[in-house]
Specification:
This protein is of the alpha/beta class. Strands 3-2-1-4 form a four-stranded mixed β-sheet, with helices on one face. Helix 4 packs across helix 6 and helix 5 crosses helix 6. It is elongated.
Length: 193
């Protein structure tokens, strides 16, 4: 028995795009995602109707991140790149040095309480500058919560766009980063040039 050939890549892409458009039209697309190649490795971008909800590095395991999003937000997740075109464009501009701040709608529902307060402050740290975890804790209203500020940075669901890479240890060393130390150093170098 001869196997029936599957659709070619162009046909598959058109079918996926049509499925995403129909799901969006019918209100069945709660979380759209796409991937993006970057100088710090492949990134997974995910967005709800409210805005960008997650940026994940390759070392986090994109499939695992999608499973987490399904549990935390909705199982109605679909590769629908069009919703994320503005985010992909702004990230490309950032990596090529043409953008210093992001102008995207953000969905912060994956962070609550003090963690969310920290993320609000992180967005205020200027391009090319750094702050210590202690400075971030103080600016977020809890000067003694240095470890909690570090945890907020480590669990930031929107790294790069909400620039936790700009937070360093008090001694000036880079500290840990969700995308790995090499990614953090790459981003700091990009912004210092």
């Amino acid at each position: 028995m001869q196997a029936v050939p599957g659709p070619d890549e162009d046909t598959e892409a058109r079918l996926r795009a049509r499925l995403a458009a129909l799901a969006q039209r019918d209100g069945l697309l709660d979380v759209a995602y796409r991937t993006l190649d970057s100088p710090v490795g492949p990134l997974l971008l995910a967005a709800t109707e409210q805005g960008l909800v997650r940026v994940a590095f390759g070392i986090e395991g994109h499939e695992a991140v999608l499973e987490e999003l399904a549990g935390a937000l909705s199982p109605r997740i679909l590769a629908a790149p069009a919703r994320l075109d503005p985010a992909a464009r702004e990230l490309d501009e950032y990596f090529t040095g043409r953008r210093r701040a992001f102008d995207l709608p953000l969905d912060f529902r994956l962070s609550k309480g003090f963690r969310r307060e920290v993320l609000t402050h992180l967005a205020e740290i200027p391009y090319g500058r750094t702050e210590s975890y202690a400075q971030v804790a103080t600016a977020s209203g809890r000067p003694r919560a240095v470890r909690a500020a570090g945890t907020a940075c480590a669990t930031n669901p929107l790294p790069l766009v909400v620039p936790c890479h700009r937070v360093v240890r008090s001694d000036g060393t880079s500290g840990r980063y969700r995308g790995g130390e090499a990614a953090k150093l790459t981003l700091l170098a990009l912004e210092s040039s």
